[in-house]
Prior knowledge:
By secondary structure, the protein is of the alpha+beta class. It has six helices and three strands. The N and C termini lie far apart (37 Å).
Amino acid sequence: MTLGQKLRQTRLSKGLSQSQVAGDCVTRNMLSQIENDQASPSMRTLEHLAQALGVSVGWLLSDEQTDAAMERMPLIFSSSARISPSSTGQSISGTESRISLSPVFSSVSE
């Protein structure tokens, strides 16, 4: 599934229009081009679209094989494990039979 297909499918499953998802960050026309794989979003646009759709940027960028592999991945940590290495900007938590990896994106300005 392409990025555009994933965006469209997620938007439609949540009952949102292109205008609602586009908001003030991107035009509805640009969102249409992205959904039709005729344009590639900037990282800023991708972050906005992910937030508007309630998903992570990582999920949007992953492919079906990656998604399926993550579902099959065995639980590595105990049910109460929680690791938050602040220097990497990532958090890892385990609950019952699943773990969740949440990368944190940040920009560096000079």
